[in-house]
Write a structure and sequence with these properties.
Layout lengths: L2 H20 L1 E11 L2 E12 L4 E3 L4 E3 L4 E3 L3 E4 L5 E7 L3 E7 L13 H17 L15 H11 L6 H7 L22 E3 L2 E3 L4 H7 L1 E5 L10 E4 L10 E6 L8 E5 L11 E5 H4 L16 E7 L11
Antiparallel strand pairs: 1-2, 2-3, 2-6, 4-7, 5-6, 7-8, 9-10, 11-16, 12-13, 12-16, 13-14, 14-15
Length: 311
C-alpha cells in the first residue's frame, strides 16, 4: 500500500472512531425540577455507538416558551400544563407534559397583613435611597434591578435598631414586620434557572419573581413595578421602575436607578411622576400601551392573593 493510500485509510479509521464515539445512537429526555423553584429544565442526553454518554445533537423544544440550548438544557417556567415536543438528531421525537410548580413553600404570603407590611417596608426602603444610597447596598449592585433586589431583601426584617444602623434607615418604623413564618425562600433569594439565588438579573425578576398585571397603569399600587425592553416585548428587560407613595395631589410616583452613566459615573436614584414619564423624551421609555418596549405592570408574587408559579 502506497503512502497516500495509508493516509486515506488512517483518516477513514479516525473518522469511524470519532463517529462511533460521538454520534448519538440512543437519546432520552427528562425534566428536572426542585421544590419552590418555578423554573424547570428539559435535559436531552444520548449514548453514542461506543456507549459514551453525552448531550444530544441538534436538540430543540417546540410548543412552549423556553430558553437555553441542547448542551446546557432548555429552561421553562409554565403557568399551566403545557405539552412540548422535543426533537434531536437524527430522528428522535418525544412528546411530554410539563406541569407548573404549584403550592410550593413560600411562593406567596398568605396573610393580608403580612403582604401590606412587606409592601410598606419595600416602598419605605426605596424612598430612603433618594437621600443617599445605603452603605448596606453594595456599590456593584447599584442599578435598576439592584435597587429592587436591595429593597426586596431588606423589607423582610426584622427591623431592629441594629438593622436601622446597618441600613441607615431614618424616621419612624414604616410598618410592623412581616411574620417570621411567612415568605420561605423569598427571604434570602430569588428563583432563577439555577435555583434560588441571592442575585437575579432583571429578566428573571420579571419572569420568575413577579406576575403580570397587564399594561393598564391604573392597576398599579405602591410597591408594584414596570419593566421596559428596548427592542420590543421579546427582548430582555433593560430597565425597571417601582411605584412608591403618590404625590400630595394623588399623582402616582415612581423611583428608579439610572444605572452607570459613563466611565466612573455610578448613576443615582431618581423619582418621576407618572404624568411626566408618559411624556419622556425617549418614546421607548413611555409606559403607554402603544409602546412595544413597555412590557407592562408587574407585582411581586409574594403580594398576590394566592400562590402562583409563573408569569
Amino acid at each position: 500500500m502506497n503512502p497516500h493510500h495509508r493516509v486515506m485509510v488512517l483518516a477513514g479509521a479516525v473518522l469511524v472512531v470519532a463517529y462511533g464515539a460521538l454520534a448519538p445512537r440512543k437519546t432520552w429526555v427528562r425534566v428536572e425540577s426542585s421544590p419552590g423553584n418555578p423554573v424547570q429544565r428539559i435535559v436531552l442526553e444520548s449514548r453514542s455507538l461506543f456507549g459514551l454518554e453525552r448531550h444530544a445533537w441538534g436538540g430543540r423544544v417546540e410548543g412552549a416558551d423556553v430558553w437555553g440550548n441542547g448542551r446546557e438544557g432548555f429552561f421553562l417556567a409554565p403557568t399551566a400544563p403545557v405539552q412540548v415536543r422535543v426533537r434531536a438528531w437524527p430522528r428522535f421525537v418525544s412528546q411530554l407534559m410539563v406541569y407548573p410548580i404549584i403550592g410550593s413553600p413560600g411562593m406567596a404570603l398568605l396573610e393580608q397583613g403580612d403582604r401590606e407590611a412587606f409592601r410598606t417596608w419595600f416602598v419605605g426602603i426605596l424612598e430612603q435611597q433618594l437621600e443617599a444610597p445605603s452603605n448596606a447596598w453594595e456599590p456593584a449592585q447599584r442599578d435598576c434591578a439592584g435597587l429592587l433586589r436591595f429593597a426586596f431583601r431588606e423589607a423582610w426584617g426584622p427591623h431592629t435598631e441594629a438593622w436601622r444602623d446597618r441600613v441607615g434607615f431614618q424616621g419612624s418604623p414604616a410598618a410592623s414586620d412581616p411574620s417570621l413564618s411567612m415568605g420561605g425562600p423569598w427571604r434570602r433569594a430569588f428563583p432563577t434557572p439555577d435555583g434560588w439565588r441571592p442575585f437575579a438579573k432583571g429578566a428573571f425578576l420579571r419572569r420568575l419573581a413577579c406576575v403580570s398585571l397587564g399594561r393598564e397603569l391604573s392597576e398599579a399600587r405602591p410597591g408594584d413595578l414596570i419593566f421596559f425592553a428596548r427592542g420590543g416585548a421579546h427582548a430582555s428587560p433593560d430597565h425597571a421602575m417601582a411605584f412608591v407613595r403618590p404625590d400630595a395631589d394623588g399623582q402616582p410616583v415612581l423611583l428608579y436607578h439610572t444605572g452607570p452613566e459613563g466611565f466612573g459615573q455610578s448613576g443615582e436614584v431618581r423619582r418621576v411622576r407618572l404624568d411626566e414619564l408618559t411624556h419622556h423624551p425617549d418614546p421607548e421609555f413611555r409606559p403607554l400601551p402603544e409602546n412595544p418596549s413597555f412590557l407592562g405592570v408587574y407585582r411581586w408574587k409574594i403580594l398576590v392573593d394566592s400562590p402562583v408559579s409563573g408569569s
